[in-house]
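=== RUN LOG ===
request id: a7f3
mode: sequence -> structure
chains: 1
length: 178
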Amino acid sequence: MPSTYEKQDTIVDVAGTKEAYKPSHPGLFEVFYAEGSFNSQLVASQDFKQGQIICKIEGTEPGPKRYSSVQVSKDSHIELNSDLVFLNHSCDPSVTLDTDEMKLIAAKDIKKGDALTFFYPSSEWEMDQPFPCWCGSTKCCKSIQGAKFLSTKVIDQYYVASHIRELLKERDEAQDSK
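=== RESULT ===
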């Protein structure tokens, strides 16, 4: 049986996975498991107001860059070690994963049952596993590869971590000097 916080590529036994599940933040959110590849999601267990701190990000550990890690500086990643690993991407995110302050914050009003999503390029310079985006938002970037591959104009629509701002500045200055 999988561990609680192991993000599985493919789930074939939804009932068994749900049975083994022990929430890291009971009352705030829970994981909804779905059969198939990358179909699970983190869902709000209560309403949250825009700007509300949902939880602190705690219990992390340094780890290698991989599809389940989160970049927290120019050259380091962490494993979340909680239900937060099930935050999915959206180009119209419901939460901000603030890696500078290590907080999860409501980016908009969230109702109980809403999926919790964040904008992956807000913390990732170059994704370990780029993927096509089908979020359907009018702001959809279509291809999620990391902030490195987006214009500053696009990035400016979102909260992004300070290390991403620094890397964008370096990239843009290097392009301007050519």
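=== NOTES ===
The CA atoms of residues 29 and 44 lie 4 Å apart.
The mean pLDDT is 89.
=== END ===
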